[in-house]
Amino acid sequence: MAAQGESADHQWMDDHAGPVVRPYAVTGGRGRPVTGTFDLISLVTATRDDVPPKAGLGPEHLTIVGLCQRVQSVAEIAAHLDLPVGAVRVLLGDLVARDLVQIREPHITLGPPEHSIFEAVINGLRAL
Q1: How far is the CA of 117 from the CAs of 15, 61, 107, 112, 125, in angstroms?
Q2: In the chain, how many domains are there?
């Protein structure tokens, strides 16, 4: 119950700790996404701007779809939602499974970088 004179929204916030609802409550107790692994720098884009009302999604899911109307990284989404990256990955898995967002994984290069890259870094450091 909210204390007298305290709004219902305020009872779910703690001045020092932030939201009272824990991340596992946001994900329904799940610790792993239903699909995907989602690197911190994976880029997320919404595939549509409206979400069907019967999609069974929580407010965090809807916020992610709204944020991803412009390309966002997984790390940026976590920062905007003020949630741990693990929780955001679970939410993204739900959205990917419903085809509401598209993920672009970072390009991974195999082998060591080219010699010219090291030269450019060394020259840049010398210029400082």
Answers
A1: 47, 40, 17, 10, 12
A2: 1
